[in-house]
Amino acid sequence: MMSNENKRLNDIISHCKEYGFIFPGSEIYDGLQAVYDYGPWGSELKKNIHDLWWNTMTRRYENIVGIDAAILMHPTTWKASGHVDNFNDPMIDNKDSKKRYRVDHLIESHAAGLKEKGNEKEALELLDKAEALLAKDDFTGLKKLIENYRIVCPLSGTCNWTDIRQFNLMFSTQFGSTSSADEADNLVYLRPETAQGIFVNFLNVQKSARMKIPFGIAQVGKAFRNEIVARQFIFRMREFEQMEMQFFVRPGTQKEWYEFWKEERLKWHYSLGIPKEKFRYHNHTKLAHYADAACDIEYEFPMGFKEVEGIHSRTDFDLRNHQEYSKKKMQYFDSETDPSSGKPYGNYIPYVIETSIGLDRTVLMVICEAYTEEDLSDGGKKDSRVVMRFSPALAPVKLAVLPLLKKDGLPEAARKIMDDCKNHFRCFYEEKDTIGKRYRRMDAIGTPFCVTVDHQTLQDDTVTLRYRDTMLQDRIPAAQVKDIVWKAVQH
Ligand code: ATP
Known about the structure:
With about 500 residues, the chain is of the alpha+beta class. The chain is about 35% helix and about 25% strand. Adenosine-5'-triphosphate (ATP) binds near residues 237, 242 and 360.
């Protein structure tokens, strides 16, 4: 039996494919695991979220500028960042199915199964024990835990496990044309996070844009992780996009800035029109090697509360290490007066607060929130619709222009509205099928407004404006359509 949560996620996945949001990558070759392609409406939605984040970061906050760094970086970057040594996950293989699992995921899904069966207490006990062992990297203890709880491989159903080992999550490739002898020298990585492109450009940006601390650098770009257990649709992909901002502050002020960004970022999530109770903070107890404080903003997906964004106080770890590995100074000269000494603060390596959000995960969040199945049965007549209740600012298509009939000069009148609107926001023109079917298709991709052009339009130049959520209709002058829609789709 499929749980309700899984059913909802599966319905969403099918809807995304059928209505042109997201397709499995390379589908004609049976797909490539954990790789997805965005279709016509998914790519519009993703771009709208991208633009909203970018505009918030680089416009609302006057002291943040953007960059667009390369995916390929000098290999030493990843030594300095700690990714070569630390970007590992403990993995375990089942000897019968030969399948490899991330230990934390294996234990989490077993705990979720226990919860579903009503054994809440046992599930929490298991998670507590696992967290303590993971914090100590106690692999022997973790393997014992897996065996004691008889956690089996979902494929083979056996508890026949190898020892736990660490695997690096970075993808590597060869740079330039190489002979096998010097392959190792030419090894480069596909970046596993966008943050390092910001750190290595810290001084270039600070000097060229004349930035004064505190200031931030924002970036949106692809990142790659060879996730071993990549499941749950676009929640965990091997190729994905991050929207990251590194905020450089005076050492000693990081705590205040960390709290500031924690709050600002949660407000941004609320601004997407998602109810507050669908979010929560998860404060980290086990900190990454670079952090002195960290939390996640979690959203309640159909499969439970999960991370969408991380906020990390990264100390001066990255800049200090880049200084050490590159032998280039990463210092900032702060000419402001320190009230305690009466002298300028002088030279220091700034501390960093990072806000790091997955663009694809945000797309999934927005899709999950919007997806609504509605029963519209009226007396004996059965009817239903799927409507994507996107906020108008995020909706892939803002306005559908629909002539009631494909004759009598109605298409020409509708075309005039298209021409008036199409350069201002994404419009969609359609004349095929009954108007009811066309409305349903627009509901399914989340178009907030439809205007219908009928015979009355030819007489008095009015149209019906139909609202997606209420399905109510107003009669308005055709000349007002552009302004009404334009106003409604602003964030
Ligand atoms: P997780 O614990 O889910 O693996 P993480 O803590 O490793 O995530 P970060 O390194 O903090 O994630 O990355 C910041 C953000 O990037 C995450 O909050 C998430 O939204 C996104 N992200 C990370 N890995 C993936 C992935 N494989 N697919 C899609 N988005 C991802």
